[in-house]
Amino acid sequence: MKNVTDSFLSLGHWPFAGSFGFFNTDILSTNLINLSVVLGVLIFFGKGVLSDLLDNRKQRIFNTIRNSEELRGGAIEQLEKARARLRKVEMEADQFRVNGYSEIEREKFNLINSIYKTLEQLENYKNETIQFEQQRTINQVRQRVFQQALQGALGTLNSCLNNELHLRTISANIGILGSIKEKTD
């Protein structure tokens, strides 16, 4: 500090080559002095302003960090809630999936049983229908054979019998029926 004051005191002893009385206008020799004066004035007057600016900036940075920490905490909390909901939904989805699979298996089993019952009923209907058709066909064949046999017998009888033989057969049959009637009386 002593050097700075000495330099101000020694200003009066400098030669005044190209200067205005008290001030030295030689730029090269006065540059250091001018610079130290400007810096001293800036430090003296600007120290409070600069300190206030830095304090304000520091406070804003701290506020931003605090807000960021609060937001981070809120985001972490929301993330944990979302993860918990996701786990819950996944468990419910797994439960629905398991229930759905068991329901599907049960429906599949019921459908298979129903199909087997239906197939058994159809098989029974088929067998009954076949039996009915066989019986009907047998009856038709019997009836036709009987009709053909009757027609053949009638044809043989008509060709073999004449009126006299026909009357004798009728009389014999009446006699047989009369004797049966007497026995029953």
UniProtKB/TrEMBL annotation:
Component of the F(0) channel, it forms part of the peripheral stalk, linking F(1) to F(0). F-type ATPases have 2 components, F(1) - the catalytic core - and F(0) - the membrane proton channel. F(1) has five subunits: alpha(3), beta(3), gamma(1), delta(1), epsilon(1). F(0) has four main subunits: a(1), b(1), b'(1) and c(10-14). The alpha and beta chains form an alternating ring which encloses part of the gamma chain. F(1) is attached to F(0) by a central stalk formed by the gamma and epsilon chains, while a peripheral stalk is formed by the delta, b and b' chains. InterPro entries: ATP_synth_b/b'su_bac/chlpt (IPR002146). Belongs to the ATPase B chain family. Keywords: ATP synthesis, CF(0), Chloroplast, Coiled coil, Hydrogen ion transport, Ion transport, Membrane, Plastid, Thylakoid, Transmembrane, Transmembrane helix, Transport. The lineage of its organism: Eukaryota, Viridiplantae, Streptophyta, Embryophyta, Tracheophyta. The chain crosses the membrane at residues 32-50. It is found in: Membrane; Plastid, Chloroplast thylakoid membrane. Its main location: membrane. This is ATP synthase subunit b, chloroplastic. CDD domains: ATP-synt_Fo_b. It comes from Mitriostigma axillare. It is a single-pass membrane protein.
